[in-house]
Design brief:
Keywords: DNA-binding, Transcription, Transcription regulation. It comes from Geodermatophilus amargosae. GO terms for molecular function: DNA-binding transcription factor activity; sequence-specific DNA binding. The protein has 213 residues and is α+β, with helices and mostly antiparallel strands. It has two domains: 108 residues, no CATH class; 102 residues, Arc Repressor Mutant, subunit A. 51% of the residues lie in helices and 14% in strands. The protein has a four-stranded antiparallel beta sheet with strand order 1-6-3-4, covered by helices on one side. A hairpin with a 2-residue loop joins strand 3 and strand 4. Helix 5 runs antiparallel to helix 6. The two termini are 25 Å apart.
């Protein structure tokens, strides 16, 4: 999925359990999985473009377990070499550049499609709010195996990824105008205080302040 954002000083990026390939300040950068909110040091009106990597692709395509990229923003060339990361002449459309680079890396890596399908299945189930134990059972995996799969594919233990996904669901509800007390119930928190603690843990701000920012 291609995305673009116009950032500015203090632009807040929340953990989302994903890895992105970015074109930022004329460089290809890999945004590793975050464990906390990141404040981007951007100029007013600065544009950042990114391509969301499929679940598990960072390990299968870039050859680096996601757990090694947690809370980092390395240049792509440092992971795959300058030749493989060479974007060539930048086209007018940055999205085309990102897609071309990813396709080249994909062909070079010949990824394990079964591993990618498993990572996608884990992601779908956790994003839907399925308990970790139920995810493991449903996929026929021991909990230890699920833990290893999640660390390699997402950089997070499955319990942490589930918490991040739940915060995402809660914030989606809150942005639609759902009262926070109702958000807490619908997203599966014990109460509103539990919701506030979890949002603050990952976003760096309590829900009301975050929604106003």
């Amino acid at each position: 999925m291609l995305w673009r954002v116009t950032a500015g000083p203090g632009h807040r990026v929340l953990p989302d359990g994903a890895v992105d390939l970015l074109w930022w300040r004329e460089r290809l950068v890999v945004a590793g999985p975050d464990t906390r909110a990141v404040l981007v040091d951007a100029e007013p009106g600065e544009e950042v473009a990114g391509l969301r990597l499929p679940p598990g692709a960072v390990a299968e395509v870039l050859g680096v377990p996601a757990s090694e990229l947690v809370d980092t923003r390395p240049e792509l060339a440092g992971l795959v070499g300058h030749r493989a990361a060479d974007p060539g002449r930048p086209p007018a459309d940055v999205g085309e550049l990102l897609e071309r680079v990813l396709v080249g890396l994909w062909r070079r890596a010949d990824p394990d499609l079964a591993a990618l399908r498993l990572a996608a299945a884990v992601d779908r189930r956790l994003a839907a709010g399925m308990p970790v134990a139920a995810v493991a059972t449903g996929l026929g995996l021991p909990l230890r195996t699920l833990h290893r799969v999640a660390l390699r594919a997402f950089g997070h233990a499955p319990q942490t990824l589930a918490r991040i996904r739940r915060v995402q669901r809660a914030l989606d509800l809150a942005r639609r105008g759902t009262p926070l007390a109702r958000v807490a119930v619908d997203a599966g928190y014990t109460d509103q205080a539990h919701l506030t603690r979890e949002v603050t843990r990952f976003a760096g701000l309590p829900p009301r302040r975050l929604l106003r920012s």
